[in-house]
Here is the input.
Amino acid sequence: MQMEYFMTDNFDEDVESTIKLYEDAIGQFAVRTWQMIERLGKIKALSKLVVSPDLQRGFKVLRDKGLLNLTFEAVIIKYRNKFEPSIVEAAQWRLDEADNLLENKVKTELGE
Here is the structure.
């Protein structure tokens, strides 16, 4: 049974919905993501993920499925008042550059 995903007006629910969407997309439990959230809390975990120089697998999977509006980056933008300005800027940059990042991924895979 396919779950329907949408953003709510509740930060916790939106974060959990994003993780569940990712889990459905990859067909397994997002162990590291849940562990990070348990260890750091949702705000610190999302902040850490979005400033990492590497794109997380979850972002890549959701981006490639055309679901950027359901990524952690989108959650950060929606709830910008919960995050430091630099975190919001990093999230917005990833969303703005998603097509270029996808294009670069394809070029790399093609050896260009």
Observations:
- The chain is about 70% helix and 0% strand.
- The two ends are 40 Å apart (CA to CA).
- The chain has one domain: 11-110.
